[in-house]
Amino acid sequence: xxxxxxxxxxxxxxxxxxxxxxxxxxxxxxxxxxxxxxxxxxxxxxxxxxxxxxxxxxxxxxxxxxxxxxxxxxxxxxxxxxxxxxxxxxxxxxxxxxxxxxxxxxxxxxxxxxxxxxxxxxxxxxxxxxxxxxxxxxxxxxxxxxxxxxxxxxxxxxxxxxxxxxxxxxxxxxxxxxxxxxxxxxxxxxxxxxxxxxxxxxxxxxxxxxxxxxxxxxxxxxxxxxxxxxxxxxxxxxxxxxxxxxxxxxxxxxxxxxxxxxxxxxxxxxxxxxxxxxxxxxxxxxxxxxxxxxxxxxxxxxxxxxxxxxxxxxxxxxxxxxxxxxxxxxxxxxxxxxxxxxxxxxxxxxxxxxxxxxxxxxxxxxxxxxxxxxxxxxxxxxxxxxxxxxxxxxxxxxxxxxxxxxxxxxxxxxxxxxxxxxxxxxxxxxxxxxxxxxxxxxxxxxxxxxxxxxxxxxxxxxxxxxxxxxxxxxxxxxxxxxxxxxxxxxxxxxxxxxxxxxxxxxxxxxxxxxxxx
Length: 517
Prior knowledge:
Elements: E1 5-12, H1 15-25, E2 29-35, E3 43-48, E4 57-62, E5 75-83, H2 88-97, E6 103-108, E7 111-117, E8 123-128, E9 151-159, H3 162-173, E10 176-180, E11 184-188, E12 194-199, E13 212-220, H4 223-235, E14 244-245, E15 250-255, E16 261-266, E17 284-285, E18 320-323, E19 332-336, H5 347-353, E20 358-362, E21 366-368, E22 371-373, H6 385-406, E23 413-418, H7 420-431, E24 438-442, E25 460-466, H8 475-484, E26 488-494, H9 502-514
Parallel strand pairs: 1-4, 2-17, 5-8, 9-12, 13-16, 19-20, 19-23, 23-24, 24-25, 25-26
Antiparallel strand pairs: 1-13, 2-3, 3-4, 5-9, 6-7, 7-8, 10-11, 11-12, 14-15, 15-16, 18-20, 21-22
């Protein structure tokens, strides 16, 4: 039976830092970029050799701003790549050039090993070995093919049940024990890669999150083998999952006795099923069940490969996400979510209004029972006035920094807020006249008490209220305040409730055209 590692999947926080390390520093080949199968808001990247061969692959689930995990028993703790033994010096020098701290080289099971950490803190080992075949070496622009990473050497698994974990991997995934120390059992596959089962008794348990290894996927020659192993696991009551068609391979998941998640994946059909072999990794794909939802692409974080032009990313007081369309106009939408939303929730809506607009989704800094808001709510219709004023002032400072940092044109920037986000924009207009000039308020109400009476003659406002919105009865007071301030106000009552949809899109498009925005 074919055995060995198919791929190893990890969780990363920031996509650009991840790409810069694995493609820019390690010189791996980006062979596939997709949306997540389980979470459509999650980007999934695969790196490997020139052909994206099983055994060369590491993949990353990108959890932007996700919480850090904790390495412990019940999960893998290290990944290892194979390099030619004579290339250790090259990689030690390269790590110094890139300012990556390393330890070693040290001997592990008779092989020289360099250790370093990726941007999320995962331990990455570079192992000098000739024990593995080289299916398709990949040479990057500044790494000679003679020194390039060959494929995965293996991984380390932490377990409180080393004997049971080792037996499970040998029995179901074709490994055999080839060496051991006092705390590590080395298992080797027919492909030559290794899994080091480390006794972690007394260590703390693992916690999922960024900077951790999610699972190891092992190789199966075909679908029939996967199904046969699943039947064996079910007979053992091992808790195997249903089979999944992941388009590029067919697989099941199961947890070994020590708690680490394992996948069993077929070698084919491979990554060339939807793009040419010489263009692997150049196109962003959605999983088949989301393929018709083009707006889902807008929610995925963007990045640039080394050598490509990359958009600026500024560290500003409000968490935000930018989306740059392939063919961008000079129009920018700044999008503010409603209660419980986040910086990506409104991106598909903005893209629907104008597919060529640059989008900036922003996240409110207040929280209510763990969910983001723009300011504190005391009841369903009363709000913390000091918090409104404080957050409005902070948002104005953010807007000014964003204009300078991203080169936004105030005349071509439109602020679109929904519900709680719309209420903040209304407060910003009244408290800081002129800070934002083109504003769309959807399902807004007068949250600001004792509002000042500014001059808003140069401010264009579209206010959209749902006729069946239970909060709609509070909208007229805001309309009156804006009208008395002299805003160029268009207020429409549309046939909808508190949610937003196609009628909002149509109204905003018309308003933008009529106002030359």
